[in-house]
From TrEMBL:
One of its GO terms (molecular function) is carbohydrate binding. Residues 36-291 form the Periplasmic binding protein domain. The keyword tRNA processing does not apply. It comes from the Bacteria. Residues 1-25 form the signal peptide. Keywords: Signal, Sugar transport, Transport. This is ABC-type sugar transport system substrate-binding protein. One of its GO terms (cellular component) is cell envelope. It comes from Kaistia hirudinis. The keyword Transport applies. It is found in: Cell envelope.
Length: 322
């Protein structure tokens, strides 16, 4: 092979390599960190990946497995590696602050998501679902149901998670109850208990039903509370007599809405794909020197038994995030 042929061959190999392996600018490398692997965070990661591909940035994904020491190690490693931004759902507002503050002081832009009422001064942007909107959207569905099906009066018991996060639990619950009063509905809250893990919530809801047989509605402030409430109604044989409204979205809750037993009436879901993509978009915009909102709400999605087509569409999208 002569020199000219050798040069042409080398050029061809270089061109082929450029197509086989995408290249990214060093100043556009972004780390994305989740703290557990479930459908919600799979959706977050999918949204990040889609936004990164569209923007032409390199995305480095990692999972802290809800371990503060691992989260700290990941943040420190990414800073050492030279990433320009970290997009993260912090495990703890207190426990996560030190490592992320160090990252910010090292010049790394910190973008947080899925974190409520964060007051860190070094965060470039924070994206989360509006907790009051979650409760209000379900409450609006409940108000219509109470007016049309219960004659404008309802006795309600609620399952929250105050021991886990009182402010968020109260926001979701109080906004639900306030919205349920719309149109002059008479609402009586007969009991309020904690119950956010499904296996425990079913027992709590069951006890509430036994102690308060006059209950018309059970409200779960999160997925576990909602699932437990549905199962408790079924266990008590109260289908058609006690109705459930809740917060959060999952394939299981979608199936409950489509079930003919008429127990779960409505729930309001967060949108993880949208949250992940918008968080990554914010990081890219910040690196490009553009102004972004310091705090932004990601739209929530109301799902109701009265719109099975929308529930089916949600279920299909959710299954794709597994």
């Amino acid at each position: 092979m002569n020199r000219r042929e050798l040069m042409l061959a080398s050029a061809a190999l270089a061109l082929a390599a450029s197509f086989a392996t995408p290249t990214f600018a060093a100043d556009r490398q972004i780390a994305g960190i989740v703290f557990q692997q479930d459908q919600f965070f799979n959706g977050i990661e999918s949204g990040m990946k889609a936004a990164a591909k569209k923007a032409g940035v390199e995305l480095l994904l990692a999972n802290s497995d809800s371990k503060p020491e691992k989260e700290q190690q990941l943040v420190d490693t990414y800073v050492t590696r030279g990433v320009k931004a970290i997009v993260i759902s912090p495990i703890s507002p207190k426990g996560s602050e030190q490592a992320l503050r160090r990252a910010s002081e090292a010049g790394v832009k910190v973008i947080t998501y899925n974190t409520f009422n964060l007051d860190w001064d070094f965060v470039a942007a924070n994206l989360s679902s509006n907790q009051a909107d979650l409760g209000r959207t379900t409450g609006e569905a409940a108000a219509k149901f109470i007016k049309e099906k219960l004659g404008g009066k309802a006795k309600i018991a609620t399952l929250g998670f105050r021991a886990l996060g009182a402010e968020v639990s109260d926001l979701r619950t109080n906004s639900f109850l306030e919205a349920a009063k719309a149109g002059g509905n008479e609402i009586t809250v007969v009991a309020q208990q904690d119950g956010w893990l499904a296996e425990k919530a079913v027992a709590v809801a069951g006890d509430l039903i036994t102690a308060n047989p006059e209950i018309d509605i059970l409200y779960g402030a999160n997925e576990g509370g909602t699932v437990g409430s549905v199962q408790a109604v079924r266990n008590a044989g109260k289908q058609g007599k006690i109705f459930v409204f809740g917060i959060d979205g999952s394939e299981q809750l979608a199936n409950f809405l489509l079930d003919k037993d008429d127990v779960l009436q409505a729930t309001t879901a967060q949108q993880p794909f949208k949250m992940g993509s918008e968080a990554l978009d914010a990081a890219v915009a910040i690196l490009d020197g553009k102004e972004v909102s310091k705090s932004a709400d990601v739209a929530v999605l109301g799902l109701s038994r009265t719109d099975p087509a929308a529930v089916e569409a949600f279920k299909k999208e959710w299954k794709s995030l597994k």
